[in-house]
Design goal:
This protein is an all-alpha fold. The chain is 65% helix and 0% strand. The longest helix has 25 residues.
Length: 240
C-alpha cells in the first residue's frame, strides 16, 4: 500500500494520537473505543491520515444531508480516495461508522479546520473533494450546497472564498474571475502575477513534495484544471 493510508488506520496509536471525534472514528475502525482527548500523546498525527479520515467523515455525513445515500456518491468517494485492492471493505466500514456516529459534521469540520489552520490549501482540497462527491448524481442539491457552505464556515472561509471554490463545480455566476479569486479591475500584469502565484500554490507537485496522499494530489489536479480553464477564458477575453 505504498500510495494509500489504509494500512495505517487499524492501529490504536494513530487514533489516540489524533484524538477528538476523528480519533474516535478511527478507534471504531480498530474495533474498540478510544478516549476522546485533546492533543496528541504520540506526537502529531500523520497529515495524510488526518486528510483522508476527515474527508471520509465529512463525505459520509454529507451523503445523508439530502436524505438519501446514493450509490453513485459512494462510488465517487472511492474514485477520489485511493483505495487499494482488498481494502474496499475497510473503506465501506469507516464510511458506515462515520454515518452512524452521534458526532455532527460540525465536530469533524472544526477538528479538521484546527489541525490544518496553517494550511488553508488543504482545507480547500477537502471542500473540492466534497463537491466532487456531491455532484456524482448529476447535481449538487440544495441541502448538499448548504452543508458544504456550513463546512466552509467551520473551516474559516468567508462567503467570497466559498463562492470561489464552488464556482469550480456549480454555475453560480458565469464569471471566470470568480473562479480565479481575482478582480476585473486588475491590470493585465497584476492578473498574470496572480494567476502564476495561484498555480504555484495549488500545483499537484507541491502536494507530492509535502508527502500528502494520492487523494490530495488528485483533488489538486482537478482544481488546477478548473483554474486553467478560467484563466483561458480571461486571457481570451483580454487578448493576452
Amino acid at each position: 500500500m505504498n500510495h494509500s493510508i489504509w494500512g495505517k488506520l487499524g492501529g490504536a496509536g494513530i487514533g489516540l494520537a489524533l484524538g477528538g471525534p476523528l480519533g474516535a472514528l478511527l478507534g471504531g475502525l480498530a474495533g474498540h473505543m478510544l478516549v476522546d482527548r485533546e492533543g496528541a500523546i504520540f506526537g502529531a498525527p500523520p497529515r495524510d491520515v488526518v486528510f483522508t479520515t476527515g474527508l471520509v467523515a465529512l463525505a459520509a455525513k454529507m451523503a445523508k444531508s439530502d436524505g438519501v445515500v446514493v450509490k453513485r456518491e459512494v462510488e465517487a468517494f472511492e474514485r477520489i480516495v485511493d483505495v487499494p485492492p482488498g481494502e474496499h471493505e475497510n473503506v465501506k466500514r469507516l464510511f458506515d461508522i462515520a454515518k452512524s456516529t452521534s458526532d455532527g459534521f460540525e465536530a469533524y469540520a472544526r477538528q479538521i479546520g484546527a489541525l490544518f489552520r496553517d494550511e488553508p490549501a488543504l482545507l480547500e482540497d477537502v471542500l473540492e473533494g466534497l463537491f466532487h462527491i456531491a455532484k456524482a448524481d448529476g447535481a449538487v442539491h440544495e441541502a448538499e450546497f448548504a452543508y458544504l457552505k456550513s463546512v466552509a464556515t467551520e473551516f474559516g472561509f468567508d462567503d467570497r472564498n466559498f463562492d470561489r471554490i464552488a464556482a469550480h463545480h456549480v454555475r453560480l455566476v458565469d464569471d471566470p474571475y470568480l473562479a480565479l479569486g481575482a478582480d476585473r479591475s486588475m491590470s493585465d500584469e497584476d492578473l498574470k502575477r496572480h494567476y502564476r502565484r495561484l498555480v504555484s500554490e495549488i500545483h499537484p507537485d507541491r502536494e507530492i513534495a509535502r508527502g500528502l496522499p494520492q487523494e490530495a494530489v488528485r483533488i489538486a489536479t482537478d482544481r488546477l484544471a478548473a483554474i486553467n480553464a478560467a484563466w483561458e477564458r480571461v486571457a481570451q477575453e483580454r487578448g493576452l
